[in-house]
Amino acid sequence: xxxxxxxxxxxxxxxxxxxxLAERGAVVIDADRIGHEVYRPHTDVxxxxxxxxxxxxxxxxxxxxxxxxxxxVFHDPLALTLLNQIVHPRMRxxxxxxxxxxxxxxxxxxxxxxxxxxxxxxxxxVDQIWVTIxxxxxxxxxxxxxxxxxxxxxRARIAAQLPTAEKIKHxxxxxxTDCDLADLGIKVLGLWEEIVEGxxx
Length: 201
Hints:
Layout: E1 2-8, H1 14-24, E2 27-30, H2 31-38, H3 44-53, H4 66-73, H5 77-103, E3 109-113, E4 128-133, H6 136-147, H7 151-159, H8 164-169, E5 173-176, H9 181-196
Parallel strand pairs: 1-3, 1-4, 2-3, 4-5
Helix pairs in contact: 1-9, 2-5, 3-5, 6-7
């Protein structure tokens, strides 16, 4: 089973690329979805997060308010480190179990889509690292128009991430998503045929 670690900065096209790989037959493990699962209300992680950051981060129904949490951790490196120390080990446990389950089945390719793949030191779980990149100004535009962040909030989110240049140092494959969807699809198909199917480019 080939395990591809797909990472990249916020809104650089990771989900678009993972969707294209899924269309080719890959099974996608979405670390963001796992993150949601591990801090459901009244889990151990949820309790640790409330203890660390206060009930202010909760919505009325008890769910973690990711927007409020983001306002804290993306402006405070120590708070972000604390959050990661709480969440990342539990997420890794879930990912490891899912990979073990898939290995017991007839699954040829798995994509672990994780923005924090490198920061969380999950690279030992994958065989290859693919990094999506996009121009910073385009990412800021996406954060403003799709999520509704201010420019200041958008730049804070980007600044809190591992720099793109550092991600690229770990990459086996770099995918520039600053192109239209059709061209991106051609890029991804070419990578699939070369790396997964072993066809010469």
